[in-house]
Specification:
This protein has helices spanning about 15-25, 65-75, 95-100, 180-185, 195-205, and strands spanning about 5-10, 30-35, 50-55, 80-85, 85-90, 105-110, 110, 120-125, 155, 165-170, 175, 210, 220. The chain is of the alpha/beta class. Strands 3-2-1-4-11-6-12 form a 7-stranded mixed sheet, sandwiched between helices. It has a 3-stranded mixed sheet with strand order 5-13-7. Strands 9-8-10 form a 3-stranded antiparallel sheet. The longest helix is centred in the N-terminal third of the chain and has 11 residues, at about 65-75.
Amino acid sequence: MNITYGIITCDDTCQFIPKIIESILGQNGLNYEIIIIGGNRDWTEIDSRINHIKFDENIKKSWITKKKNLITENATNEIIVYLHDYVYFDKNWLKELENFGENWDLLCNPVLNENGGPFRSLAYLDKPNLGRKWTIREKWCPLEGFHCEGSHHHIAHPENGFDHRYVYINGTYFIAKKHIMEKYPLNEELSWGMGEDAEHSIRIRDKVKIVYNPHSIVKLCKHKELGIPICV
């Protein structure tokens, strides 16, 4: 399985990258590349396969949509893993991914918080009787029907079946096919904190095959708050 691992970072937040790279190398996969967008350190000293692309953080604050689209643009493999610089891979992640197969357009896996509890991997944004309806906030984005006011969503349990009409793919970590992300790139009008992942989910979730693989697990290097209690 040929995989591109795309990591977004900056100089102030890159302290976990050695652990992430170590977890990638520990998968024993032969056909991979690592793209790191942002920061100034030369990561090729750890692995010569790393393609480090510097990024001018002064152009637009927290412009993670641009960084992720650059991962898509520079990836040489069809399977791309998009992750923030505090997500690392369980030792059996690749084995379970290969066992799962490639019958998907966009793939989500369990994401565990630093304490081992669940983090947002796949959730409902607006399912009736669960999530809040999201509507527009003009100062954030011009797209009608969209509004981001924080983590108002509930964890889905796709192993029991889920409804793609309401699904939200958290931008912290997900896997997608290159041709899908070329067709449906992230909205570069949005930056971090503007619900860029929710907007992307709403825009594509009726158009692509979103699948959940419960066996390939990733973990966070630091604790992340959920915003609201998980609805189980």
